[in-house]
Amino acid sequence: MAGEIKILNSLSPLYWILTNSVGQFYNCATPGFEAEADANWSSVVGIASGFSTRYAANLTRQGTSLYWLGNMPSVAAGRYSYAAFQQIGGLPALTDNPVQSGTIEWTGDHISSTGIVLPDNVAFGTNGGIPTDTSITADVGTALNTAVPGSPTAGSSYAYLKSLPNDIAPGVTDGLQQAGVPVDLPATVPTGFLATDTTLLAVKAKTDALVTVPKGTVVGTPAPTATTFTATGLSTTSNEYFNSYALFITGVNAGSTAQPVAASTAGGQLTCASFPAAPSAGDTFVIIGSKN
Fold first, then answer.
1. How many independent structural domains does the chain possess?
2. Among 65-69, 250-254, 277-281, 287-291, where is mean pLDDT lowest?
3. 3-state DSSP call for residue 189?
4. d(Cα 262, Cα 72) in Å, to the nearest integer?
5. Which of 106, 126, 153 marks a domain boundary?
6. Which residues span the domain enclosing 24?
7. Quick check: helix, strand or coil at residue 260?
8. Spatial separation of the C-alpha atoms in residues 246 and 273, rounded to whole Å
9. What is the Cα Rg of the chain in Å?
10. Residue 238 belongs to a domain
């Protein structure tokens, strides 16, 4: 560990002490945390490198600046407090003047940059500890593979799931289609998953038609205009994109407002409300919104 403790102060010399979340002091001689003992502020018996007494850890001044650095001892992950003191006599003492204090969120080998605070001696992924990605995935998977009860508690997530078949079809599927989200529900609905298998299959039938967002590339012939242009990459069904919107992602119209499609031909020609300018060959766009 190196330079984790940072103190800005004009006084000299300085040292610092470390305490845990229950107020115990770090004793470098044991090493470990203990209830405060007055004698250990000045005791040099059995001290470790980097300490001037059992409690007092060294701070090193950076050149002639007001900046001091101290090294974190080897301790478990957790939240700790530190306090820096000005040494008045020949050794650190209980009566020295405090100059700065703070807290440390320690991962076990560096100060945390995420803001996650770990309790003392609690490891990741253990009961009562901080869950890992793997444990979260396992817990969610178990929950999703559990059948919905026949009479779920009112207001619970299960009760909400059972209500979905009655109102999912019109609003949610349109929203999915506009976002270009492909949906592939299983052909066989697990028994008890929702109120009835037939309603979920009806949702599946509607969502089976959803497609990813179509993308077109403007061609130079016939000459494109601000309202009419021909593109490759589109459906060959006439008026497939009627009531949809065209949104340019490259070219002169990139960043402009999407325009409604008034008509589309089997040959890939779109007629839209006017864009700011005629697109050029190679400009690309996407179709968003509901298909006709």
1. 3
2. 287-291
3. coil
4. 68
5. 106
6. 5-106
7. strand
8. 9
9. 34
10. yes
